[in-house]
Amino acid sequence: MPKISAPTVAEHRERVIAAIVAGTREVLIDKGYADLKLGEVAAKAKVSRTSIYDYFVNKDDVILAVLEQDIPTWEAAVKAGVEGVTSPRGRVEAYIEALMGIATDGGMELAAALRQSNLSKFVIKSLTEMVQDLIAPLAAALKDLGDENPDVTAMMILRIVDSAIWQIEKGYSKADVTKMAVSLILDGVDRE
Asked: Closest Cα partner for 72 from 130, 5, 145?
């Protein structure tokens, strides 16, 4: 029987999974999706490479576990950003500003690491499902503005925000890029 490093097997399992997820996040941010090697994750997590497969099916499964930890934090931040804003246009603006703030303050390093990745179809499909709660406040505001396909428009807006974040990472002013992104998006979605 393997040696456990916690008072119970359940606690040991939780600790090992947490260590693997943390190691994956670190390697993914440092090296990106394409260069993520489970052997390196195992070294960071202080487990054997083969033991990763006791907890996860494959590399994509581990990446999804990391995303499952990060996305709820992003959701809470954007919901807090739009809370109390009553006009649909104001909610779209508050959402964009909240998301840009999270990303440029280091809260979305994982998203930045995945941005230039050639993700598997499985990860893309799972990620698309995971972000539904993240885009919900934006989609609701878009619907209130009369958008007939608010979920599609919201996903397109995420790509615009992602491009804006990339511009900030390249050295452009956060305030200027945020203002441009908000203007571009609001001009595109507000058909009044």
From this structure: 130
The confidence score (pLDDT) of residue 1 equals 42
Amino acid residing at 76: A
Distances (CA, A) of 44 to 27, 29, 106: 8, 13, 21
Distance, CA of 27 to CA of 47 (rounded, Å)? 15
The pTM of this model reads 0.78
Q: For residue 20, which amino acid is it?
A: I
What CA–CA distance (Å, rounded) separates 6 from 75?
Answer: 32
Q: Give 69-102 as a DSSP string.
A: HHHHHHHHHHHHHHTT--SHHHHHHHHHHHHHHH
* pLDDT, tens digit (0-9, with 9 covering 90-100), for 134-191: 899 999 999 999 999 999 999 999 889 888 888 888 889 988 998 999 999 988 876 5
Look up residue 178 and give its amino acid.
T
Residue with tokens 């693997």: 20
Spatial neighbors of 118 by CB under 8 A, at least 6 apart, are: 33, 34
Residue (of 155, 150, 135, 145) closest to 90 by Cα position: 145
What whole-number distance in Å separates Cα of residue 111 and Cα of residue 103?
8
Q: Domains in the chain, start-ordered, CATH in brackets?
A: 1-56 (1.10.10.60), 61-189 (1.10.357.10)
Residues 6 or more apart whose Cβ sits within 8 Å of residue 49 = 38, 39, 42
pLDDT digits (tens, 9 = 90+) for 40-65: 999 999 999 999 999 999 888 998 89
